[in-house]
Automatic annotation (TrEMBL):
Keywords: Hydrolase, Metal-binding, Zinc
Cofactor annotation: Zn(2+)
GO molecular function: N-acetylglucosaminylinositol deacetylase activity; zinc ion binding
Organism: Planosporangium mesophilum
HAMAP family, sorted: MshB
Name assigned to this protein: 1D-myo-inositol 2-acetamido-2-deoxy-alpha-D-glucopyranoside deacetylase
Length: 292
């Protein structure tokens, strides 16, 4: 089970992982907490959908998300509390944070209770969400972390056996910076030291590295599906262009709950989020022995 804040996060942060496990026959459930109503619009013809105009971007991003899930092979997708229950809060500190339906202002136990209903139905063995900072500090990402961790706490014996947080190793960021230093598509802007970025983890804090390079093209198709959010000039396309689409297919995770399974390589990272779990005796998921 993947708990994400907006349509597009599932693809950007965990798209290759989701495609990898969907292709392997695991039951993959995506829970998206908002419709992304406050997002930018990088498709000029759709600019009228903006929140301060027709305010229809949220509905449009449902369709983008459907297309992205199809590209990734993910068939079980839910909006937390149903489509439109919680609204995109906008970036930290904006007046949109105070919208009556803003996810940032949601009652924690109420929102976690809604996620608990899905956990009780799907019985995921593994849950993936963000770290306490929401990976980069967006209020909806921070709230998604809080709601997911509270739901895991409330789930008791039905809680997933392992909970991971999305992460990027500092070494990967540093390598990217070096490559982009002279590029006009430099996604790191003026930042020259990976330690100065609002995200990035020491290799010692990373527990798993999922190699989903076989699904990099699916992730690229899913990125393209989120056209209102991810323009052709995006750093994501720059990475695919500079390092090959395969670079998009490797995704890293920190382990927040559960026992780390066996790993390998320089840092002993797991290559499978189900490492150490008995997936043959999975819970109630009808679709496959394993569920994420
Ligand atoms: C990846 C992600 O979480 N995207 C969010 C984010 O989008 C940012 C926002 O539009 C900001 O104004 C831009 O400068 C930045 O480049 C975007 O990544 O926040 C949006 C509003 O809450 C949200 O809809 C979008 O999904
Ligand atoms: Zn987001």
């Amino acid at each position: 089970m993947f708990v994400h804040a907006h349509p597009d996060d599932e693809t950007i942060g965990t798209g290759a992982t989701m495609a990898h496990y969907a292709a392997a026959g695991a039951h993959v459930t995506l829970v998206t907490c908002t419709l992304g109503e406050e997002g930018e619009i990088h498709v000029p013809a759709l600019s009228g959908l903006a929140a301060d105009q027709a305010d229809q971007l949220g509905g449009y991003r449902i369709a983008e998300l459907d297309a992205a899930c199809r590209a990734l092979g993910v068939t079980d997708h839910r909006f937390l509390g149903g489509a439109g229950r919680f609204r995109d809060s906008g970036m930290m500190g904006l007046p949109t944070n105070d919208h009556p339906r803003a996810f940032w202002g949601a009652d924690l136990d109420e929102a976690a209770g809604l996620l608990l209903e899905i956990i009780r139905e799907v019985r995921p063995q593994v849950l993936v969400t963000y770290d306490p900072n929401g990976f980069y500090g967006h209020p909806d990402h921070i709230q998604a972390h809080r709601v997911a961790m509270r739901a895991v706490e409330m789930a008791g014996d039905l809680a997933p056996r392992k909970v991971y947080w999305t992460a990027v190793p500092r070494s990967v960021l540093a390598a990217g910076m070096a490559q982009f230093a002279e590029s006009s598509d430099n996604p790191f802007g003026g930042v020259s030291n990976a330690d100065d970025l609002p995200f990035g983890s020491p290799e010692s804090e990373i527990a798993a590295c999922v190699d989903g390079q076989k699904h990099a093209d699916a992730k690229l198709a899913a990125i393209e599906a989120h056209a209102t959010q991810i323009p052709p000039t995006s750093w994501l396309f720059a990475i695919a262009g500079n390092f090959g689409s395969g670079a998009l297919g490797v995704e890293h995770y920190r382990l927040a709950v559960g026992e780390k399974g066996s790993g390998s390589g320089e840092y002993g990272w797991e290559d499978d989020l189900f490492a150490g779990l008995d997936t043959a005796s999975a819970g109630a998921t009808p679709a496959a022995a394993a569920s994420a």
